[in-house]
Fold this protein.
Amino acid sequence: MTETTRPDPGDPEGAIAAAAKRCSNWGRWGADDVLGTLNFLDEAKRRAGAACVRRGVSFSLAQTFDANGPQKGWRRRTNPVHTMLDTGADAERGTQGFPHGLGGADDVVFMPLQASTQWDGLGHIFDHGAAWNGRRAGDVVTSEGDRVTGIETAAAHITGRGVLLDVGRAIGDGGELPDGYAITTADLEATIAAQGSPVGRGDLLCVRTGRLARARREGWGDYAGGDSPGLSFTTADWLHGTEIAGIATDTWGFEVRPNEFDVAFQPLHQVCIPHIGLFIGEMWDFDALAADCAADGVWEFFLSAAPLPVTGAVGAPVNPLAVK
């Protein structure tokens, strides 16, 4: 499939199968591999990322984790619930049992692991019962969690050269793309050309659509689970061919919603995660970073984005840090 060739909207099954075959990385790093495209992010690429630090200014790319977040129950996802176990009032009243006037505060949080800024792990999506690297989905994720490619396997790896492609600024109206806009390979390459920011093997790619900025201005609405700009299904070959280590967007689902098929759900996920082995980040906040990049004309940075290593999780929260 070329960039200009759209898939038949009535044949998602055929389009997904064909893209999966063309873009498969199964066996590329051996039968036991659990890292997928993170194998492209080697020591040299991390040194290249560190060399991007010139000014020492840093940006958190995370949304907040609180009750005012974007979730409204889609797929039983809720916003984080934060509860105090010990408070300053307890300390004042001397009810905590510590000697010599010592007091403290303690707290707990309950949250779905994909409630806010997060990575999708390789056990998050399957294709016809197959998980990353051709394993049976039931052998990978059980009632005990992801016993093979749990997110903890990625915890030490996701740090290196980040590149922001501000597609919203490059081709959008007022810095934002409308819901339902399918970002094509041509759009990505046009943004790369306009910014002068090459993208290649081992990079951590950040794609800003402007969707989060609109949610902040107009209210969450269906930000988490509804219509959104995102990557076109036709970018699968580009994502595979560039050999990037990971990609993150400022949207809830990475790919365009509604998608380009009559009846399909997250078809690009179905190719990228179980077949390419690509790590996908969602609901990242690029707005402050994008403004800085536009001001100084530098769109690359050192990115450290380790997921919380929850053993056996198929996704996890992250506070990505971009340093320029």
